[in-house]
UniProtKB/TrEMBL annotation, chains A, B:
PROSITE patterns: CNMP_BINDING_3 (PS50042). Residues 18-74 form the Cyclic nucleotide-binding domain. CDD domains: CAP_ED (cd00038). It comes from the Bacteria. Transmembrane segments: none annotated. This is Crp/Fnr family transcriptional regulator.
Length: 196, 196
């Protein structure tokens, strides 16, 4: 891919670690640009996840479908976020989750098979991913805490704060599924909030 | 601390990355051995977390107390596990969680203020922590999924599998609080399972 296409990723990286020009060139040589259409999958439940994807534009949803056919939304990702099924990626076993594009989505992909070699070559990238994982882990623990301690209404208010630009972009049933409530209950919460 | 005291940690590390003798010596020079008594805290909600702790013996529980005074259990940690409030550690802001010893507990502590310098000196340790974080993040996401898709009974069965050696060591109310149910409901589940 071209340096120009990689610009959003290089900007993102430069907020966390400083790569030299030659390190940037090495990186650009191994990452790939890919455009997915709305409805297409970056990862499908049951497949083996082969990439970490950095989103340049668009929006993707991570969800899984349980034995009863029920969808559960794990997370959303938009511009400047990463997405993948990390469990599948690090064990190279079938993915638990689907990552599906809610909009046409442009990504930069890191192929997993060269990721460990890349870390050895450019340790600053291992630093970047270590730091990203720290934050992702903290956010994930906080979500567990919220599910314990907040009401559905409080969780919805938090969701709006956490994803301020996303709510207009996604169907309401996905927001409900992220909160672990029904679409009807979400409507009720929203009309309650509107009258407060 | 002595090489002998560090043995459990060095064994653990050798399962993931290979340190040279001199790298092990550098590590030993900066980590600390500490014994906590049952009931003492490794981290207290509101304090700034200063260490990552590797447990040599004993058992610690991570929990938080919400505005209503209700305790919520996030995780347990026993021999060969790590514990800390990572959110507090990486931002050096007040901890959201308590980490309290359920038994007398021996730990090896990595001081946070030298952790980044340590990674620069021994990149293999950054690799170790990156890999640990990947697994911790995956486990945390799976817990969110279980809370969505499994009944309390199924979650309890999973808990027994995940923590096979812990259940006998901790009070039942902590297990209930980990599962997000009441002590009474847990008793009911257990007597149901006993008759199956």
């Amino acid at each position: 891919m071209t340096r120009d296409q990689a610009k959003p990723l290089l900007n993102y990286i430069s907020n966390h670690v400083n790569l030299s020009d030659s390190e940037e060139d090495e990186l650009i040589a191994i990452i790939n640009y890919r455009k997915y259409l709305k409805g297409q999958y970056l990862v499908q439940q049951g497949d083996i996840c082969k990439h970490s994807s950095f989103i340049i534009s668009g929006c993707a949803r991570t969800f899984f479908v349980d034995d009863k056919g029920q969808e559960h939304t794990i997370m959303f990702a938009i511009e400047d976020w990463w997405t993948s099924d990390i469990g599948s990626l690090i064990t190279q076993s079938p993915a638990d989750y689907n990552v599906q594009c809610i909009e046409d989505t442009e990504v930069i992909q890191f192929p997993y098979d060269i990721q460990e070699a890349l870390y050895l070559k450019i340790p600053k990238l291992e630093r970047l991913f270590r730091k990203m994982l720290e934050r992702a882990f903290v956010a994930s623990q906080k979500r567990i805490v919220r599910s314990f301690s907040l009401t559905a209404k409080e969780q919805y208010i938090h969701f709006k704060k956490q994803y301020p630009k996303i709510e207009q972009r996604i169907p309401q049933y996905m927001v409900a599924s992220y909160l672990g409530i029904t679409k009807e209950f979400l409507s009720k919460i929203k009309s309650q909030l509107a009258t407060e």
